[in-house]
Amino acid sequence: MQWTNVSEQNVYQNRWFRVNLADVELPDGSHLDHYVIRLRPVAAATVVNASDEVLLLWRHRFITDSWGWELAAGVVEDGEDIAAAAAREMEEETGWRPGPLRPLLTVEPANGLTDARHHLYWAEEGQYTGPPQDAFESSRREWIPLKLIPDMIARGEVPAANMAAALLMLHHLRLG
Predict the structure, then answer these.
(1) For the segment 24-33, what is each residue's pLDDT rounded down to a tens digit?
(2) Which of 1, 60, 108, 169 has the greatest CB tally within 10 Å of its CB?
(3) pTM for the full model?
(4) Strands of the chain, DSSP E
């Protein structure tokens, strides 16, 4: 059963997102109004070192008033290559420039409300370039043993679904 987006009108927009009101036709022919949040893509990256440790950021999210471990991430600028954006965000937020990035996964974290796509990458090596430019993004940056990731997620230490999915995929790829 497919819903059809007949039309959308913009309700609000800024540099970061647009809120549209969609006229949606349901399979039975009836219509409903549905708000849609349109977002630019998000790119995230991390490095897993030779000791199977993953570089993560410990940060507070004021919207949910929660603390958790995350990969460095940010929006993809207009016209920017997604992998390049992931590498840029990682260096700005951690002070580490990743080696060649490998696609890890792409997720749609809230596809019932927004068209956001999060593209997550990883590298097997990185180079420390100095203190992070965007140190305000996190309280600390640490190399965490990948073997600890499933238990950390179970304890709620990785509250963001996109980050949990990426870290579980890394755990699977590296440790089986």
Answers:
(1) 999 999 999 9
(2) 169
(3) 0.91
(4) 4-13, 17-25, 31-39, 42-47, 53-61, 66-70, 72-75, 96-98, 102-107, 118-123, 126-128, 140-145
Say if strands 118-123 and 42-47 run parallel, antiparallel, or are unpaired: parallel
CB 69 within 8 A of CB 58: yes
> 110, 116 in Cβ contact below 8 A?
yes
Q: How far apart are CA 21 and CA 171, in angstroms?
A: 40
99: left (phi over 0), alpha (psi -120 to 50) or beta: beta
Report the alpha-carbon distance of residue 170 to residue 147 in Å, rounded. 10
Q: What whole-number distance in Å separates Cα of residue 156 and Cα of residue 154?
A: 5
Residue with tokens 């006229």: 23
